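Please decode residue identities from the backbone states below.
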């Protein structure tokens, strides 16, 4: 789905984002789903996840499960 087609939602990006916009943004959608988009392409594609899927990702990120992709 295109992010621009989601209507008026509030996008949030991490404070760890840098000045060149290399980050992802999240938006809560009606019905409890969560959209994710590339901040450099605000009208481009958005991936839609359930709250449980995002909660699992955030928990894994907190625990360091994905640190190996940055090595």
């Amino acid at each position: 789905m295109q992010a621009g087609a989601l209507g008026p939602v509030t996008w949030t990006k991490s404070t760890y984002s840098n000045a060149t916009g290399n980050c992802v943004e999240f938006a809560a959608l009606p019905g409890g789903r969560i959209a994710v988009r590339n901040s450099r392409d605000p009208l481009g594609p958005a991936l839609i996840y359930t709250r449980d899927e995002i909660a699992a990702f955030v928990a894994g990120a907190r625990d360091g499960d994905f640190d190996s992709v940055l090595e």
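Observation: The mean pLDDT is 92.
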